[in-house]
Amino acid sequence: MHNTCLDPTTTARLHALATLTGRPEADLLREAVAAYLEDVEDIRAAEESLREIESGGKPLTLEELDAYLDRDLAR
Known about the structure:
It comes from Thiocapsa rosea. By secondary structure, the protein is mostly helical. It has helices at residues 8-21, 25-54, 62-74.
């Protein structure tokens, strides 16, 4: 468990959302952090792909991407 200090405005927004949705603030925080981390990981992967392409790497064709995604989703 991590203790996090939020500024008063963010704390008020979190409390308002928890009240509006009837969900615990801790659940909302967990979901927000998980979504943020996923977004950051996606951005880093996209930046790495761009660096590879800019350094002469071959981008995937649409067909290759579809096949990759099909394999990934089958797991």
